[in-house]
Automatic annotation (TrEMBL):
Pfam families: MarR. One of its GO terms (biological process) is response to stress. Residues 13-147 form the HTH marR-type domain. SMART domains: HTH_MARR. GO terms for molecular function: DNA-binding transcription factor activity. This is HTH marR-type domain-containing protein.
């Protein structure tokens, strides 16, 4: 931002925004490190599929493709590779014989669980570096910030594989 923009915002508001931006970069760093190991065994698009299935359970191919912004015909070939790798499996829908569901397999679930646990552990380690009062202040501020921001739409986070 230009100095003029800073002056227009007011120094205090600019400093507040910069503080939150620094914290967001720190959290994104935690996210990136937590997912990095998973991306050694799967691609980011594959990880995104695993995250959707981990949070929603078995999903029809068409709905899964739509959630990920993909075309069902090419998405099916993409799923073939994931199925061959033991990450997902096709299964018949209990509601319709014509519908096929994509279900997360234990190998795929483990990749998501491990990334989530790495993130949880990293955040825990950061919080442990703070004294009790600092930790309480940070947690209260994070709760307030989260409430003010609102829960992001799942599609928004899916870009990052979250």
């Amino acid at each position: 931002m230009s100095p003029t923009g800073r002056q227009a915002q007011g120094s205090g508001a600019y400093d507040e925004v910069e503080s939150v931006l620094r914290a967001s970069r720190a959290l994104l760093g935690v996210v990136a490190r937590s997912v990095a190991e998973a991306l050694e065994s799967v691609t980011l698009p594959q990880f995104r599929v695993l995250v959707v299935l981990a949070s929603s359970g078995p999903v029809p191919i068409g709905i899964l493709a739509a959630k990920l912004g993909s075309v069902p015909s090419t998405f099916s070939r993409f799923l073939d590779r994931m199925e061959d790798a033991g990450l997902v499996a096709r299964q018949p829908s209990p509601d319709s014989r014509r519908e096929v569901l994509i279900a997360l397999q234990p190998k795929g679930a483990a990749i998501v669980e491990e990334a989530t646990e790495r993130r949880r552990q990293a955040i825990g380690e950061i919080l442990e570096r703070l004294d009790r009062n600092e930790r309480a202040a940070i947690l209260a501020a994070m709760d307030d910030f989260s409430a003010a921001a609102g829960e992001p739409a799942p599609e928004t986070l899916l870009i990052l594989g979250l």
